[in-house]
Amino acid sequence: MSDQDKDSFYEALDETPNKWWFCAMTGLFISLFMIAFQPFGVTNHDPDFQINTFFVLLMLAIGVTVMVVLALNEFLLRARIIPSFTPSKLAAWLAWVYVLVGSVTFLLYNAVGNWHDFSFLSWLGFVRDVGMIITFPIVGYLFYVRHQALRSEYVRLQSNPPESSDRMMTFTSKNGKDPLIVSVRDLLYLESEDNYVSISYLENEQPGSHLIRS
Questions:
Q1: 196-207, pLDDT tens digit by residue?
Q2: Residue 96 confidence (pLDDT)
Q3: Which of 27, 31, 91, 137: disulfide with 66, CB 3.0–4.6 Å?
């Protein structure tokens, strides 16, 4: 991912609609997962349990609570602590989200169950297990934002193409040796070949190619 692509990606993560999507997707996914699979003994391990309206509403309430907590986390806390993302800050923030959602789910589960499983080891288990659950919506959300950022960048480039076709581009191998300098006007295409990149270009109006390890 180029620096410009990274900037577009991080800017997209800060857009208000995307923040709401993240909160809503995570909360809804938790509700649907709880309804479908009844983890953590939410049915008291009753083999004759049947999904009913009360159970569905209770699981939806848990999802809505998670969504509200995430919204407060995104719009209030993160705006003050991490005004802009870097790779390390994004990783740290996602780790905090895992702990936060696991903790909220742990407290809700015990509040409904009369605090029958309120212990440190149980909390660790919730953070681990709920973290595994929300990995699916989080990864899906990041892919969605990445796609959105690339699409926006593509539209921008289509609307504002580079003014000069005489701009030069420099290609270097992984070890920094054998640089190739080609005019944008003469560059034809690049093709991946395992650990190498084949660069096709015009040289004195004749097609040529250059192979670099990258």
A1: 899 999 988 889
A2: 96
A3: 27
55-103 pLDDT tens trace: 999 999 999 999 999 999 999 999 899 988 989 999 999 999 999 999 9
Phi, psi of 53 (to 5 degrees): -65, -40
Give pairs for 195-201: CB < 8 Å, separation 24+: 197/171, 199/171
Residue carrying the six token digits 């580079």: 162
Exposure class string for 82-121: b at 16+ Cβ within 10 A, else e: eeebeeeeeeebeeebbebbbebbbebbbeeeeeebeeee
The distance of Cα 138 from the centroid of its chain, to the nearest Å, equals 6
Question: What DSSP letter does each residue of the chain carry, written as one string?
Answer: --HHHHHHHHHHHTSHHHHHHHHHHHHHHHHHHHHHH--TTTTTT-TT----HHHHHHHHHHHHHHHHHHHHIIIIIHHHH-SS--HHHHHHHHHHHHHHHHHHHHHHHHHHTTTTT-SHHHHHHHHHHHHHHHHHHHHHHHHHHHHHHHHHHHHHHHHS--S-S--EEEE--TTS-S-EEEETTTEEEEEEETTEEEEEEEETTEEEEEEEE-
